[in-house]
Amino acid sequence: MREELYRPLGLDRTVTKDASKARRIRSHVLLGLSGAALLGGSLASVLLQPDFAPPPAPAPLAIVAKVEAPAAPKGPTIVRPSEGGGVTIADGDGVIRQSEGLDSVQTGSVRVLEPGSLRQSPSFAHLPEDALLEGSAFGRLPVRAGDGRRPLDVYAGAPARAGGTRVAIVVGGLGISQTGTQKAVQNLPPGVTLAFAAAGNSLDRWMQAARRNGHELLLQAPMEPFGYPQVSPGEHTQTVASAESGNFDALHWAMGRLTNYVGVMNFMGARFNSDPRALEPFLGELSRRGLLYLDDGTSPRSVSRDVAVAGSTPFASSDLVLDEDRTSEAIARQLDTLERIARAKGTAIGVASAFDTTIASIARWAKEAEARGIEIVPISALAYDPEARG
């Protein structure tokens, strides 16, 4: 009975030799299996552990700049007058642009947006900006800066202060007569635009004086008149034939004579301004360099406005020549006429030359006109500018 009570607990006191041997065999087997299981589990843990070693350093990225080849030159541009009074321009890609005639765009009614920070500080207005110049065989020529700024933006004079009646007056021929140039720079109000003749003298000195006094500047380039070469504006005349062939050596010579100007004005050039085939590449060259073109308005056969609008070139045209008669009385009458034009349409542009009577008459009229609510503004403020922002 006592033996039966102990059997369930494995406390059997009477163990045979065979039973003892069997238990030892079972113990060894269980011990071996336990060891194998432990070893297998350890091995699995090692194999399944994540790899904490630092990843290999990535290969350096190669930075390749995409450089586009310059566009191939297009075929010749065809420019012809259109039946509606404008011009039709077909370029080398077959794209046709049509202007709508002289009345489609009223220069003088479209204001160039004030460039804000793009405009030079008055303290540095007499200093050319290197970013707006490129070297050439003819000296430093104006060019758009790499960031898109144009000489037209940077060298522009102070804009209109209000939206009232505005008049731009351009006095040309500066640099030819030293006394006349000095009087124009010193006696004319800052709003008057000064145009320097490319054939003038001491142009850099006069440029700096004019810019310090707040004037906006233009360059007068000799251009082919009717009757050329018997009638000539002088050496380095930009001819119709040279412009049609894409030769702008004469223009570049003139451009290299001065800096800090916003555009080019014709000196003579009635024949040139009447030929669309010469004007289209010529105005394209000015636009490419970030300049405007001012037609002095002396030729009734000029098509410069149409070609400028069709080609998206900043442009202005004079309404009146102020001193064809150089007497003080005649100039005063012309200035009164200019004021009436401005009051009728909001703006007006007049051109004149740097004669003593002209300078004195304009200076006197300007003071009186301001008291009557007329604001004298630089030419850029009244130019058609297809690139104006805002």
TrEMBL record:
SUPFAM superfamilies: Glycoside hydrolase/deacetylase. InterPro entries: Divergent_DAC, Glyco_hydro/deAcase_b/a-brl. GO terms for biological process: carbohydrate metabolic process. It comes from the Bacteria. This is Divergent polysaccharide deacetylase. It comes from Aureimonas ureilytica.
